[in-house]
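--- STAGE predict ---
source: upstream dedup step, 1 unique chain passed
mode: sequence only
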Amino acid sequence: MKMLIGGRWTEASDGGKISVLNPATLEKIDEVPAASRADVMTALDCARRGAEEWAACPLHRRIQIIRTFLEAFRRHRAELAELLQRETGKITAAAQGCIDGSLELGEHYAELARTLGGETFPMGNREGTENDLLVTVREPLGVVVCILPYNFPIDAYMHKVIPALLMGNAVLIKPASDTPLTDIRCTQLLLESGVPGNAVQIVTGSGGKIGEWLTSDPRVALVNLTGSTQVGIQIAKNCAGHLHRTHLELGGNDALIILPDADVDEAAEEAFRSRIGNCGQTCCAGKRFFVHRSMRDAFAAKLREKLRQVVVGDPRAPETTCGPLISEKAAGDLEAQLALSVRQGGRILHGGHRLGKTFFEPTLMELTAEADAARDLELFGPVWSMLVYQTVDEAVELANRSMYGLSSGVLGKDMPTMMRVARSLRAGTCVVGGSGAYRTCDQPFGGYKMSGLGREGGRYTLEELSQVKCIVLKS
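--- STAGE serialize ---
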């Protein structure tokens, strides 16, 4: 596939290419351009013109065009699910689920955009304003850069690109180099549905290079990233020079605190469910499981039994429940992180082995409180990290030691205790009665501390992707 710049299929001006591999087989699926700086500057020029053109399009017409796109998306559901599976390694049910969930997201934003209103302030609420009318309206920001992740490329597309367009912005998309194909195909469908060629661009290539060029350019109004905390910090520094707005959904090392009165079968099931999806490559998945010492052995035994039933293998096979990690590098990194955790006092209770180049055995590990993975090392793969505590206050304190605070959960039977824990955990979400692996269309999703800036979901997204103007009708 090629890039789409100014509505035209475009190769890199210097001929650069990047291969896209199937993570399950490491076979080449396709290749995409490695954009040069000149290509990115051309895309920004187009986007700047597109921002004016698209902002002039009335909201009802923008909604109509997006709904046309969603119908095309629905018609191409099977094609998109297959393409997504090939480039991400998701098992079949997960790939299809992402497509269906993304369609629901797009429809949600199209419906919500029609009713997102402003405010009217009381006339005469201050001396001298007796006959003045103050109202607010929402206007586009301009050029929005959307930097998409590899783990959920199509979900992120619907959370970032579609609402940005609905709010009248021009969008420049940078997909992950591992997973650009489904995002490119969606951009093609947007253009075919009536979005002007200058209003949506997609450029591919090295994130380090393209991200630097995009986030340091004065023509950009907002950078919307889902990615690692390290990348988010660098982007924030780049954006500071021009006071670009930033929306950063970053890393997480999410805690599930299992209280002493919790049902151990329910706890093991919730822990398993919260982590197995997408081969553990989910930002808000449960990653640190705090278990009271009285139930440690029973919990570990029940969770081990569930992990033994996991079928790792070809994501297309109907019996497979866990496919590959996104790349050979990702599997190597996870292997090294487990070895570090063992050196820091951790004990592997089940699994722990890399299978081939990109597959990994589901792993249960008991950590010491001082291990990196117990605090700030995010293990992105099928690893369940268990930490044993003695008091609830100790569990909360250990959970809050992390620099991250994306999501969290607490499981037990006593509601007052669970609510106290929920209020004490420093995370953007706390699920009472379950794990933090929870996200709906409306939910204000985002984190505390180094897990990011801003909230994504429902009206929160539409508000972040627009700006408020106050209009005063002065008597």
